Please model this.
Amino acid sequence: MIETDPAQIVPDSEHKGLVARLPQPWRNYALLARFDRPIGWWLLFWPCAWGLFLGQGTGEWAMLAWMLLGAIAMRGAGCVYNDIVDADLDARVARTALRPIASGAVTKRAAWLWLLTLCAVGLVVLLQLRWEAQLVALGSLALVAAYPFMKRLTGWPQAWLGLVFTWGAPVGWVEATGFERLAPLAALYAGCWAWCMAYDTIYALQDREDDALVGIGSSALSFGRHVKAGVAALYALALTGWAGAVWLARPDPLALLALLPVALHLCWQVVTLKEDGVDPLTKFRSNRTAGLLMAAACYVVGAA
Model:
């Protein structure tokens, strides 16, 4: 097995498994696409599943697999693009200084080629969708392109990320239903936006000091001493949106009970959240479980 130098590991990396066994040049590209951190593509994938399931696409397992592949590829592409744009900032932040472009392990030219390769995989996935869902998916490109610049322009870049990273919900819904019955989708997407903004605020707690020093925006900084209350309010907004989506899809009080497990999980996150140490990363990663619980709720409601 190829040894990994601990000094070269980005602090929040899950640097183990297949990525750690790759030869160093290949490993650099895997790290650039964050293949060592599967939490990112889970968080991108789950809204796709929610939209598909709640739109009554509960039997479309092949499409779900395509969406998972698309989430892995396009999350990787987004990370590569973000690191190309942010190379100067990453070099000045402790948690990101060892990223491949910021550290000089991968050139920007090579990174652009890797980005195009990942986008080619995404294109294959795009072609599996019905044409309406293809149009929706393509609509995210402008949002994705603008995101890396938001932290330079606003103290709330997580608000923009919420639009970008949960775009799979409209894609999944339209894949299942076309452009019919958009009211449940609007509520679902609003809830997804708040969920993403909340979990990325938790994630940003790790960088508050460095972000303040280099002058970039973050909701973890903007909330100040009220981060925990802000996260609680965002999770409450997420649950409100999701409850609205469930009710509009199936107006039955019993259907709302499907949201109880994910509601309890989000409450646990807020109540036990510590704003320093390793807890923000632990709570951020726990949203993989929150996504699974929400997927189960959408499946139950969509299949009824």
The first helix runs from residue 18 to 21. Residues 140 and 189 are 13 Å apart (CA to CA). The radius of gyration is 19 Å. Residues 9-303 form a domain with the Tetracycline Repressor; domain 2 fold (CATH 1.10.357.140).
